[in-house]
Amino acid sequence: MSLNPKRTVAELKELRELTSDENGAQRVAWTDVWLKARKWFATKLVGMPIEHHYDAAGNNWVTLSGASEKTLLIGGHLDSVPNGGWLDGSLNVLAGLEVLRRIHTEFKGKPPLTVRLVDWADEEGARFGRSLLGSSAFAGTHSIAADRVRTDRDGITMEDALKRCGVHMDRFPEAEKERTNAAAYLELHIEQGPVLEKMGLPLGVVLGTKGVERHAIRFHGQEAHSGATPMKLRRDALAAAAKLALEIRAIAGRHEDAVCTMGSLKTFPGIVTAVVGRAEATLDQRDLDAKVLAQMLREAQEASQRFAKEEGCTVEWSRIWSIEPIPFHAHLLELCEQSVKEVAGASHRLPSGPLHDAAEVSRAGIPTVMMFVQSLRGISHNKIEDTKEEHLEMSVAALDRLADKTMNWILERR
Ligand SMILES: [Zn+2]
């Protein structure tokens, strides 16, 4: 029984059948449908000589012990957003399972080193707004105190929802012991963007996950009557915010892969007969280079001051959230590129805008790399999320090659 990528596609369809409705995948973490997906996954392990357990943060571990305790990790997540797609996260898990089967067969149940497959708990953060929950517990970067009191739409706390699934947040730190002997981490994922499709490439190598600077920006002007206030005498907070909304495109445009988004803008009083006295905007900036990210933030702040002055307003900034860029391991990038080229002929290196569990694993100091497979129309977190079946099969084959090369690299290292 050698690698069978067609089986991965068939299993993805099986999972879709089991956990989707007419609006898409409904495998939201800590819900019954998610538990059903995990139960289904466990049936796929029957008959393999593996150890299977859930850690203290609810991460789902499958271990094939090898001659060496040094361990190769392959990961993904079975949870989805509400009305999600059939591939986000689950492709990674099921492709990893197929690779595990191949290794098990090739080495007759005893590979030269230990291989573990992990299905991370709550990658999406869809219910409580906290992404990468399980992998952050693994990495030791969790924030239990802030997270336990988070509530979902029905007012249920995160702590209670997890308890219902047998996970006690006080015990999160115990998940860190899963890091023992971890020598490398691999994650395959759909791109969720349009770059590979535009280039006509099935597969790509992920350079790392972009750092994020997320801020709230408030422009203060003067509410005034729209009929009585001459144009020259207005202090229009919306005018200042609007100038910034256009300027951030130029700020991002000076760097190849940088992105800046003003995703929300509220005006006060927000009525048709008043000049806007207060405008509240959000800005999300991302790049793989920490220096570029810092520079873009500085430029946006300077521009906001300038525009505020021009419009007779003031401006204040407050940080909502930030994370540093996480570049992946240089040698694993090489191995990933070789694997992609062997399977697809050509490769491309690109950063990831979305965050992934791989970022947390890399933060824990474990050599990490990700591989992307093309997303059709660049759409994800939506029931129309899709990838050509031939590309899915290629992605399984390329992940398998990468696993093979990485095992050899781990064995040669010491
Ligand atoms: Zn995902």
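^ zinc ion complex. Residues 389-413 form the longest helix (25 residues). The chain has a mean pLDDT of 96.
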